[in-house]
Amino acid sequence: MTILPLHSYAAGRWIAPSGNITTLKSAVTGEPVAEIGSGGLDYAGMAEHARRTGGPALRTMTFHQRAAMLKALAQYLNEHRDPLYELSYETGSTKADSMIDIDGGIGTLFVYASKGKRELPDDTIYVDGALEQLSRGGNFLGQHVATSLQGVAVHINAFNFPVWGMLEKLAPTLLAGVPAIVKPASATAWLTEAAFRMMIESGLLPEGAVQLIAGPTGDLLDRLGCQDVVSFTGSAATAGMLRANPRLIANSVRFIAEQDSLNASILGPDASPGTPEFDAFVKEVHREMTAKAGQKCTAMRRLIVPDAHRDAVIEAVADRLAKTVIGNPRDEATRMGALASLAQRADVREKVEAIAREARLVHGDPQRSTSAEPTPRRALSSRRCCLPATTRTVPRASMPLRRSARSRP
Asked: 217: number of CA atoms within 13 Å, CB side?
């Protein structure tokens, strides 16, 4: 396979990788797939290009015009998406996994285009609530309106959804009239770069509306101000490190983080083996463990089951896993592909070893697998699981509008 040089897109130009270049490897074979490096980028220039060129162009458009732009972009990507599936195999994704990422991302564009047309005005501002009387005689009134931020949105994305992760953030950002700089995770960046290149080739987006960093972000975060936004998806540790940037704090830069996941699934005591509820539970557990090799923010992190059903759940899940074909995602018989990178495989094995200090492996051998098999675990202690299910609100789809007040004398 030809090694792909991943280009950044800055100030309207494609820039070849330079500086500290990293070789990216196939999740399936371990062979080189691409090279990435952003040493030659002018990060300050990218931010200014977004603010001075992309932002004004987007803000002249109404919500309905931006929605029409998103719809046209979704249609273009939908018609040209086939080459993305081939690149997606090298991330370890099966065809079904790739459809979640690629088709799901395109579908998100369609959804926001529809919501923009149906739920937002054909205007450049969004009126928030009714007029408020501010004086006794009614000769002084106030009203809140939402307007586009006059900065840039920096999107730092995760490795598991290289297409959807980009498009799900770009859709509300562009609909809000704010330009974006996209920084994909390096491990699967070749797929993001290919989808981004299609967006530019479509000619549907105003100049400066989107830019791409293929590699590290350099000093970009130090260049941001109070009208800018950082949207991060990844680990809590990285989010904490980025959020603590002194310049972000000093300049009151908005920081949005979708970090880690603590999702749980709870089996009720009345859902005993043989009931439809029990079978549905086992089916969902298996699907969450194998789809995208378990690399989803919505994947189950823990199962909470009654002691009376514990052995039955372990047996049923292990039985389904034993029948799951794990291998090369290009093989039509494969139902679960590889983890996204060798680094991810090493991380999974390390975590399994840590859990093994308090639990017993009930299926698979992660040290012998080419790709890390899902490993349901069973606590040796007779105590009931005391970890609660955790829910959270994810702000990633929020539109970067600013709320201001206007007064009417």
From this structure: 20
Distance CA 225, CA 316 (A): 54
Bridge partners, residue 79, by sequence? none
d(Cα 146, Cα 400) in Å, to the nearest integer? 10
Please, are residues 120 and 171 in contact by the beta-carbon 8 Å criterion? no
**Is residue 324 within 8 Å of residue 336, measured between CB atoms?**
yes
Condensed to tens digits (0 to 9), the pLDDT of residues 182-232 reads 999 999 999 999 999 999 999 999 999 999 999 999 999 999 999 999 999
> Which residues are designated catalytic?
258, 297
Closest CA to 245 of 228, 258, 260: 228
pLDDT digits (tens, 9 = 90+) for 286-330: 999 999 988 888 888 889 999 999 999 999 999 999 999 988 999
Which residue ranges form the domains of the chain, and what is each CATH number? 4-261+393-408 (3.40.605.10), 264-379 (3.40.309.10)
Model confidence, pTM: 0.86
